[in-house]
Amino acid sequence: MATEGNYQAPELIKKLEAFQLPIVSDMTELQSVLSDPDSATGDIVRFAAFDPVLGLYVQKLAGERQVGRTGEIHGFEHALSMIGTEGLKELIKQLPKSSEELSPEYKQVIAESVFACEIAKNLAEFKSTSNKEIIASSLFARATEWMMYWIHPRRSWQLRRMFYRRPFNTDAVTELLFDFKYSDLQSLISEQFYLPNLNARIARFNLVGVVRQVLSAVALFRQKDLRLEDCSRELRLQLGAAEMTPIIANRLAQACCSPWLRNRGRWFDIAAIHCHQPVKVIEQAVLKSLMKVVDSPIEFAQFPPFTSLVCQTSAAPYPDYLANKAQVKLKQQQQRAQAEEQARLAKERAKPPEYAPYSTSQRAQVMSHYRKLVDHPEKFRSAKQAIIETLDMLVEQTPLERVSFLALNPARTFAKSLVTRGKQKEHEKFEIKADLMKVMSWKKFIDKQAFLMFEKRRHAKYWEQQPVQIQTSDITFFLLNSLSYNGEVRAFLYADMAGSNKALSPECLTDFKRIVSGLSGRLRVN
Questions:
Q1: pLDDT confidence of residue 398
Q2: What is the enclosing helix (H) or strand (E) of 488?
Q3: H or E stretch covering 493
C-alpha cells in the first residue's frame, strides 16, 4: 500500500505514469507465458485480459505509437496487437518488483471494473453506439478509484458509501475525502494514457443538474413503465447519452456486490430507461455477465458479484470507524463509562485496605493453640476434638467470620463439610459440597498441601466454577488450604468474611496457614 496522505491530481498521475499502481496478475506467471516460445498472442490475452491495470499500461504504450495516426485504441487485445509481445516484455521490466500484499479493497474495485466491462458489453447490444469503445471505456471508467483504493484502502469504505449517498457528484465526494476533484484526475488519465474519447467525456459528465428529474423518472417508470421518449428533452440528452452506458455498467457492478445499498434498484431502472428495455431484460443481461466473471480468474476479495442475488437488504457491513453518529455517540459514552470505572477501581486499589482488627493478644492465643497442636497433640482426645477446637479458636480469636472443615472421599473426587463454625449462628448451617471433577480450580490442592485466597474480581474466570454454596454467598473472597496427612491430602480448611467482607491483614493470613500446618500434624497422630 502506498504511503497515506492527501494528494493533488498532478502528483497522482505521476505515480500512475511511473507504473507504481500494482497489477493484479502474477508477475512470475506472466513472465513465464511471455518467455515460452510456444505462446501465442491469444495465450497472453487469455492470461492478462482480466487485469485492468496492466491493460491501462498497455493502452499507454500503444497510444504513444498511435500518435499522428487516425483511429482510437479499444481494449487490451487491440493495444497488445500494436505493441507486440516484445513491447509487453519491455513494459514488464518497468513494473516495480513489489512484494506488498494487495489490499482486499483494491482487489475488489479492480474486479468490479472487469465485471462492469462485461455488463457494458451486454448493454451495448441494446444501443447503436460502438461496442468496442463502450466496453473499453467501461473498463477504465473507475481508474481514478483504483488509485484511491490503492493509496487509502481504509478511506475506500467511505468512498463506497458516499458515492451512493451522493451518486451524481463524485467531485464533491473526492474533494471531501482526498482534497482533489475526481474529474481532474480522470481527465488526466484519459489524456495521458490515450484512452477512448468516451472516457474523457465520462470524466466531465455530470448529472447533478437533473437529479430530481432522474428520481421522478424512476418513480414514473416503476408506476407506468416510462420510456425515454416520455422524458423532457434535457433529461433525454442526459439519460440517453453514450456516456451513461459505462456509468450505468459500473454502478450495476457495484450494486451486485453490495446488497446493503438501499438505492441499488434505481440503477436497474435507470439502465432500463437508458436501453429502452424492461427491467427483467436488464437483469438477464447482468446475470449473463455475472456467469462469465464467476468463471474468470479475477478475485472479488471482499464481496462476490452474486451477493445481491442471494442476500436480503441489510445493514452495511462497514467497519466500526464508519459507524453512524448515534453509534459513535453510544460507543463514546460506553468508553467514558468504562474509563470512569477503571479510574474508580484504580483509586480503590491505591487506597490502603481497611483490615479487620487483629490484636497482639489475639495472635498470642492463636500461637498458643498452634503450640498445643504441634507440641502436645495428646491433649486432644481425638481428631474430631482437635478439629472442633481449632475451628472454634479461629472464629473467636481471629477476624475470620466463618470457617468450615471439608473431608475428601477415598477417591479424592468429592469434598463435603463436616464441621462449620461462625460468629453468627446462621453461619453454622453453611455446608459446602464440591465435585472436584467440576471445580477444576480446586484440583491442584489435592496434589500437595497448598493455600490460596480466591478473590471474586481477581479470579473471575474461576469464580463460576466454585461450588454453588460459595457462588450464592455474598462474599468477595475466601481462603482455602488443603491438609495433608498420612501421605496425601485428605481434607480442606475453608474460611471467609461472610458478614462484613473486610480485608484480612497479612498477619491473619500467616496465622491461618500456620494453624492449618499444626492441625495437619495433629491429624497424622491418628
A1: 96
A2: strand 488-496
A3: strand 488-496
- What CA–CA distance (Å, rounded) separates 203 from 199? 6
Please give the Cα distance from 174 to 254 (Å, whole number): 18
Q: Which helix (H) or strand (E) holds 491?
A: strand 488-496
The closest alpha carbon to 91, from 64, 66, 54, 63, belongs to: 54
Phi, psi (rounded to 5 degrees) for 243 = -65, -25
DSSP conformation class of 2? P
Residue linked to cell 496487437: 81
Output the 3-class SS for 69-121: CCCCCCHHHHHHHHHHHHHHHHHHHHCCCCCCCCCHHHHHHHHHHHHHHHHHH
Q: Which residues contact 128 (CB under 8 A, 6 or more apart)?
A: none
Q: Say what the alpha-carbon torsion angle 215, 135, 63, 180 is, to the nearest 10 degrees.
A: 30
Instruction: Output the nine-digit C-alpha cell for 72.
Output: 482510437
**Cα–Cα–Cα angle for 474, 476, 481, nearest 5°?**
110
On whether the CB atoms of residues 71 and 53 are closer than 8 A, the answer is: no
Amino acid at 500: S
The residue behind cell 502474477 is 26
Low-confidence ranges of the chain (pLDDT < 70): 1-6, 97-100, 128-130, 163-168, 226, 228, 259-264, 307-328, 349, 526
CB atoms within 10 A of CB 26: 13
Positive or negative: CA dihedral 288, 203, 193, 66: positive
> Quick one: DSSP state of residue 519?
H
Measured CA distances, 240 to 15, 83, 133, 220 (Å): 35, 35, 16, 17
Q: Which three cell numbers mark 6?
A: 492527501
Nearest to 55, CA basis, from 123, 157, 120, 146: 146
pTM of the model: 0.60
Question: How many CB atoms within 10 Å of residue 512?
Answer: 22
pLDDT value at position 61?
92
pLDDT one-digit tens code per residue, 142-193:
999 999 889 888 777 777 777 666 666 788 888 888 888 889 999 999 999 9
Question: Crossing angle for the helix pair 170-178 and 182-192, nearest 10 degrees?
Answer: 100
